[in-house]
Write a structure and sequence with these properties.
This protein is mostly beta strands and 162 residues long. Helices cover 14% and strands 44% of the residues. The protein has 3 helices and 9 strands. Strands 3, 4, 5, 8 and 9 form a 5-stranded antiparallel sheet that branches. The longest helix has 11 residues, at 2-12.
């Protein structure tokens, strides 16, 4: 019963983990975040290429049952509220081999780059990407989760917009 009260107390005083003695690190699955998102457009008479990149931080908390093998499933570009996918199946490269193993209470940082020649579309693509800020969405699969989880960059205004 005392343990049940302590857990309830942690929830109630969850905003003050240091004072309450509760451990705020509850990531039992890999929690990805995306940082440094950037996009640039390169236009030609044939259309537009999308370049750029981002870093993924893959973090696993100390309460996880073991290491997690993480794979990248998909990257896309969407409008900020994610109601419309503007570019599906964005091609990215990384110097990191997958799957990435993330140990308990550890994190891994993985850099992804987009090459304009690999992400090419017609001229209307530039109009879609330049009409408003956009976000990069990366979908990851972790062996502990048994399913996918996505992470999103902060809003991006691509360079090279007309």
């Amino acid at each position: 019963m005392a343990r049940a009260r302590w857990i309830r107390g942690c929830v109630v005083v969850g905003l003050f983990p240091i004072i309450s003695g509760c451990d705020p690190d509850t990531a039992v699955f890999v929690e990805p975040t995306l940082e440094g998102g950037a996009l640039s457009l390169q236009t030609s008479s044939l259309g537009v290429g999308v370049g750029g990149g981002f870093e993924a931080v893959l973090r696993l908390g100390e309460r996880a049952s073991g290491a997690s093998d993480v794979t990248l499933e998909e990257v896309s570009i969407a409008d900020v509220d994610r109601t419309r996918t503007l570019v599906a199946n964005v091609q990215v490269t990384s110097t990191t081999s997958f799957p990435v193993s993330v140990g308990v209470d550890e994190q891994a940082m993985v850099r992804f780059d987009l090459a304009p020649e690999d992400n090419f579309g017609d001229a209307s693509l530039a109009e879609d990407l330049c009409a408003q800020p956009v976000v990069l969405v990366a979908v990851f699969d972790g062996s502990l989760r048994g399913g996918t989880v996505d992470a999103v960059t902060e809003p991006i205004s691509p360079d090279g917009c007309p």
